[in-house]
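Possible regression after last week's pipeline update?

I re-ran a chain I had predicted before the update to compare outputs. Posting the input and the new output here so someone can diff against the archived version. Not blocking, just want to make sure nothing changed silently.
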Amino acid sequence: MERAKRNVWLWSGMLSLMLLTQTAQAQESPLGKGKVSRSTFTSAIENREPVDEIVVLNDGSTEIYFFTELKFLQGRTIVHRWEYNDVLQAEVAFKVGGPRWRVYSRKTLMPHQTGNWTVVVRDQETGWPLEARMFRFSLPGESIP
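New output (post-update):
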């Protein structure tokens, strides 16, 4: 009986995932070929490139950068939305000047802001989300669940 319940749950989950995928594929981007080709959190930017990749920031640093390489979005304004535990903390807008454009924004974190952070990259005019990335901020020695 338990095995039958697991199978029903598994099949219903797979069906839901397939329907979600088909719905997402059916909705075409209003930005045409425009996309984020690379994005990452990093401790610094050198020559307009990230120096490393951060998933968990727990070395005592309180400053973090979000790097984004944009393709085919020239003339548009793209926004980095910094969210802490799903609450908007900052928005940084960039005017895209060419077919390949690299931008970054920076955030200084306070000790009481430990937890999950997300940056959502979206088109300012349409609100269309292009990318979302997460990192976790914790204090040195703090355990990460």
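Follow-up from reviewer: compared with the archived run. Residues 2-26 form the longest helix (25 residues). Marking as no regression found.
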